[in-house]
Amino acid sequence: MKPIPDHLDYGLSILFIGYNPSVRSSETGHHYANPSNRFWKLIHEAGLTPRKYKPEEDGDLLKLGYGFTNIVARPTKTAAEITKEEYKAGRLRLMETIQRYRPKVACFVGKGVYEQYSGRTGIEWGPQPESVVPNVVEFVAPSSSGLVRMRSEEITAIFRQLTVYLKDSTG
Length: 171
Description:
GO terms for molecular function: pyrimidine-specific mismatch base pair DNA N-glycosylase activity; uracil DNA N-glycosylase activity. The protein is α/β, with parallel strands linked by helices. It has helices at 23-28, 39-45, 84-101, 111-118, 152-170; strands spanning 14-18, 66-70, 105-109, 126-127, 137-141.
């Protein structure tokens, strides 16, 4: 299985950060490509996109100010297969990426992603009180994986906070 390309640019409104690519994402070369993953539905229902995009359109979201990366590049069936060493290396690479591109918001799609990145535990959903990278809002949202047992409506409500934040920050 091969890693998938990041979609990065300077001045992003949101950089979405996942655990790592799924097997399906590796096969297609696109983020959140597993049919059971709710990401595209969630961000649309949260008001972040004007329509529901498809995984193969992930690069088009750069035009909306949204980018994509993962804490670990190696595709796996589940995040449980990621090693401590991979998380450690991914954390450093991710910090460098966020410092370099400086998105307004670094949105961690999964509490575990943020825990591995920040070294913190016991965190709440939404914006974090203290950022690892200064002047970048760190936002924690639930994983959009179909394996997550949280109701879609609850996850959408958390993602909707991003929509409100972006509207408030741009006037």
